[in-house]
TrEMBL record:
Key words of the record: Cell membrane, Cell projection, Disulfide bond, Glycoprotein, Ion channel, Ion transport, Ligand-gated ion channel, Membrane, Postsynaptic cell membrane, Receptor, Signal, Synapse, Transmembrane, Transmembrane helix, Transport
Entry protein name: Glutamate receptor ionotropic, kainate 2-like
Pfam families recorded: Lig_chan, Lig_chan-Glu_bd
Annotated localization: Postsynaptic cell membrane; Presynaptic cell membrane
Domain Ionotropic glutamate receptor L-glutamate and glycine-binding: 30-94
Organism from which the protein derives: Glossina fuscipes
Originating gene: LOC119644127
Transmembrane segments: 150-169, 227-248
Length: 425
């Protein structure tokens, strides 16, 4: 009769033994970074968020570790043609490492060949794009508060009302006569509401200015009162919207979400090669994401996929390119570069975990340690340390508490000077 042991951890107590584990990682700010000075050797070469998490976990679980980089500098993805894995996943599958630590996403495909601990950070996929530049001020931009068709309607109403006032004054005898009390006769006057004066009366009302022309006939007064009320509403609406145009910078973003990105051809987009984001688009059943994957796959590989996050971020800054990346990394970049921004929300939800080979006795122990660190707030304090360092973050002017309305310069109001008449003697 043979004894079958199904739980390898029963052979030893990992908390009391002097065990040294081989841990592989990949360089990625701010998760894992390297010091290149001659004075740094071994584990001291590495620093960052994940390095701090690993140190706390090793302290609580009770093991030592040797930290090194994965040879091919990849997280791990399965080749759909050969079925072979690469990156840190391959190293764990071949038992060349005991743990893999970094910004490694827990996915179904990876979970089927290796094990993951409880996630120590939750995230999703989002779109990194550069902040659109403010459009240059045009000469006739003071007409922007009202749409072009509204201006046409106002001009048409102006002509119609002026002609109507002139016609009604022409056929109304009261506009050309007046009762003289001293002589007790009607005295005829010249017609004041000529066609030219009618146009002048209407434009004076529109500009909220009085004139010597005073309608006497009831019909002319009714038309004038309606025109006055119309002018009041139009001028009030124009003034209110003009204030918004002068004080608020309106930036036109060419894309607002993933649907906009997939339905256009001017902006190219891509993601990290051999990463979970690439796998997400490749295996997705949602039509929008399938369309984006076909677009990325049909283009040249070097113009769509990047080998590092730094390469993708640089491409966003220098060209018309959108980079699909994980939200935690995106937050880190955006908080340090005010020329970059996040477009839309998260496309999915997932988490980062510490990877182990299948059946590793360290998985459950590390998971318990991660849960304890989360409950005590240690991981949140590490996040604040690496993401919200005041000395490294930028502060957009529009989001600061001290921001005030900017003074209007000549670029804002200089165009109004063209409305002033120019006289020559």
């Amino acid at each position: 009769m043979r004894l079958n042991i199904t739980e390898p951890s029963l052979f030893f107590d990992t908390g009391s033994m002097n065990v040294t584990l081989v841990v592989i990682t990949i360089l990625e700010k701010p998760y894992v970074m390297m010091r290149y000075g001659k004075n740094y050797t071994g584990n001291n070469r590495f620093y960052g968020f994940c390095v701090d998490v690993l140190r706390l976990v090793a302290r609580d679980v009770g093991f030592d570790y040797i930290l090194d980089l994965v040879p091919d500098r990849k997280y791990g993805a399965k080749d759909p043609l050969t079925g072979q894995w690469n990156g840190m996943v391959e190293q764990l599958m071949k038992y060349k490492a005991d743990l893999a630590v970094g910004s490694m996403t827990i996915t179904y495909a990876r979970e089927s060949v290796i094990d993951f601990t409880k996630p120590f950070m939750n995230l999703g996929i989002s779109i990194l794009f550069k902040v659109p530049s403010t459009p240059s001020t045009k000469l006739f931009s003071f007409m922007n508060p009202l749409a072009f068709d509204v201006w046409l309607y106002v001009l048409t109403a102006y002509f119609c009302v002026s002609i109507t006032i002139h016609a009604m004054a022409k056929i109304s005898p009261k506009e050309r006569s007046n009762f003289n009390r001293s002589s007790k006769y009607f005295v005829k006057y010249l017609d004041k509401f000529t066609l030219r004066n009618s146009f002048w009366f209407a434009v004076g009302t529109l500009m909220q200015q009085s004139s010597n022309l005073k309608p006497r006939a009831i019909s002319v007064r009714i038309v004038s009162a309606i025109w006055w009320f119309f002018s009041l509403i139009i001028i009030a609406s124009y003034t209110a919207n003009l204030a918004a145009f002068l004080t608020v910078e309106r930036m036109t973003t060419p894309i607002e979400n993933a649907e906009d990105l997939s339905s256009q051809t001017e902006i190219s987009y891509g993601t990290l090669e051999s990463g979970s984001t690439m796998t997400f688009f490749r295996d997705s059943l949602i039509e929008t994401y399938r369309k984006m994957w076909r677009n990325m796959e049909n283009k040249k590989k070097h113009s769509t996929f990047t080998s590092t996050y730094e390469e993708g971020i640089k491409r966003v800054k220098e060209s018309n390119y959108a980079f699909l990346m994980e939200s935690t990394m995106l937050d880190y970049v955006v908080q340090r570069d005010c020329n970059l921004t996040q477009i839309g929300g998260l496309l999915d939800t997932k988490g980062y975990g510490i990877a182990t080979p299948k059946g590793s006795p360290w998985r459950d122990k590390i998971s318990l340690a991660i849960l304890e660190l989360q409950e005590k707030g240690d991981i949140q304090m590490l996040y604040d340390k690496w993401w919200k360092n005041v000395g490294e973050t930028c502060f957009p002017r529009s989001n600061t508490k001290q921001s005030k309305a900017n003074a209007l310069g000549f670029d804002n109001i200089g165009k109004y000077f063209i409305t002033l008449p120019y006289y020559r003697r």
